[in-house]
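Friendly challenge for the regulars: who can give me the structure tokens for this chain first? No prize, just bragging rights.
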Amino acid sequence: MPELPEVEVVRRGLERWISGRTIAAAQVLHPRAVRRHLAGAEDFAARLSGRRVAVARRRGKYLWLPLGDPGDGDGEGPAGPAEYALLAHLGMSGQLLVQPGQRPDEKHLRVRIGFADAARGELRFVDQRTFGGLSVHPVTAEGLPEVIAHIAPDPLDPAFDPGAFHAALRRRATTLKRALLDQSLISGIGNIYADEALWRARLHYERPTATLSRARTDELLTHVREVLAAALSQGGTSFDSLYVNVNGESGYFDRSLNVYGREGRPCRRCGTPVRRRAWTNRSSYFCPRCQRPPRAV
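First reply, four minutes later:
Bragging rights claimed.
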């Protein structure tokens, strides 16, 4: 599933190509793509029609397009204040692509969104496995779609509070990787970047969070930010053609991974073979020498 860097790459593409444009019409080609819009496909399309798109936003793995009333009659000028947001979750294989209207439809095209300035292309939601989806929701006073208001800020967000994060770690009877994947504590981190950050910090994924000092928590957050920023600079991690930006291009951070997916290969730091362990229906990759397990494990 795409994590913060992959979703941020898509958000930046939407900001460049979609922001400020007025939606002419939306067409739902597969009802499962809008299943989270409980009022149905017709209501989904009606709520988008005529709305002006503001700058794309993101929190963790979610991104959305704020929807305001159109500006002046010719579609130019500032949009009205956002009342609703078009929320997107990419799931396992979702793609938001900006395509010329005359380009043939993709095999797994699920939703098409056309704009008043049709010559600049349309927005297509393509999803092979249909685990992702689009939906329209009212926004809070802070501009968040109501359904994700409980999601914590991500570590690249200026609103993220390291002190509050550390206090939450100390209060909870949990382990480090579980905490990093808990979107109510810190958002945007998934399996790949949790393993990478823990390797950089020389911390085992099963270490109890209550054992971390404030200095150690801050060090871990530094590594989290560094790995996310490095992945973002390389367009994210693409293991197959399903993870692409709005122009259909894949990221290449997979070439820089230190432990994830490298079972049996030498640790880039000490040379010890990397290990993989089954973990909550996933896998955890770690160096047994650099990341000593806690005694209880």
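The two ends are 28 Å apart (CA to CA). Residues 1 and 92 are 5 Å apart (CA to CA). Your move, everyone else.
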